[in-house]
Amino acid sequence: MTGTTTGTTGAWTHLTASDGHRLTAYEARPVGAEKGRLLIVQEIFGINGHIRRVCDGYAADGYRTLAPALFDRAERGVELPYDEAGVQRGRELMGSVSVEDALTDVAAGLAHLGGAEGAAIAGYCWGGTIAWAAASRLPVRAAIAYYGGGIGNRLDEVPRTPVLLHFGETDHAIPLTVAEELRQRHPGAITHLYPAGHGFNCDERASYDAASAALAKRRTLGLLQAVF
């Protein structure tokens, strides 16, 4: 499968984690000059069309981008729809892949991206929680998390890299108190609130908010430009 965004070349590749596990990953490369490298962490819906378009979009902005298929440890080739059945199955798969295993596979992705300057990480939904965990455990240039539902359970973790957090003010899955506590306990992390709900960046969801998605993308690109 290839990317569809003009100015990128997207394709599937394979990674091998430190424990020997082999997984697939979607990689998109900029056609022109490379500005930096970015690892994308999936939602609970797998490496679906939305995540591939996210990769293609950042590649079009000049970033070599990789999205490891973290659910390969439980089931290969997962691409779930944004409906009730997709949510249920996604939650089941999420429960079968530990954060530790996910970080092991993220580390394999970072090694694949390589480069003397390293890579940043950006995660969405479940992936936002993984990105937050990576900020304190893995050598990443920066960590960006979109509506990471599990971050509130990991507030004791201390990021060792610049962090940018995007939350929706009307996200029923994540209380606003999480953002408030993040600001209090981690003032070095940049936390933004948007007039939107959970999944506001995904144009396949009813909760998609184009204005909030565009603003969050501009802020994310600003951080990437600052660290590369």
Strand content: 15-25%
| Unreliable runs | 1-6
Shape field: globular
What is the CA–CA distance across the termini? 29 Å
Number of domains: 1
CATH topology: Rossmann fold
InterPro entries: AB_hydrolase_fold (IPR029058), Dienelactn_hydro (IPR002925), Dienelactone_hydrolase-like (IPR051049)
GO molecular function: hydrolase activity
Pfam family, one: DLH
Organism: Azospirillum brasilense
Keywords:
alpha/beta; 8 strands; hydrolase activity; globular; Dienelactn_hydro; 228 residues; Carboxymethylenebutenolidase; eight-stranded mixed β-sheet; Rossmann fold
Give the arrangement of secondary structure elements.
Blueprint: E1 8-16, E2 22-30, E3 36-41, H1 49-60, E4 63-68, H2 84-96, H3 99-113, E5 120-124, H4 126-137, E6 143-146, E7 163-168, H5 176-185, E8 190-194, H6 210-227
Parallel strand pairs: 3-4, 3-5, 5-6, 6-7, 7-8
Antiparallel strand pairs: 1-2, 2-4
Pfam families: DLH
Protein name: Carboxymethylenebutenolidase
InterPro entries: AB_hydrolase_fold (IPR029058), Dienelactn_hydro (IPR002925), Dienelactone_hydrolase-like (IPR051049)
Description of the molecule:
This protein is α/β, with parallel strands linked by helices. It has one domain: Rossmann fold (3-Layer(aba) Sandwich), CATH 3.40.50. The chain has helices at 49-60, 84-96, 99-113, 126-137, 176-185, 210-227; strands spanning 8-16, 22-30, 36-41, 63-68, 120-124, 143-146, 163-168, 190-194. An 8-stranded mixed beta sheet has the order 1-2-4-3-5-6-7-8, with helices on both faces. The longest helix is centred in the C-terminal third of the chain and has 18 residues, at 210-227. The protein starts with 7 loop residues before the first strand and ends with a helix. Residues 24-227 form the Dienelactone hydrolase domain.
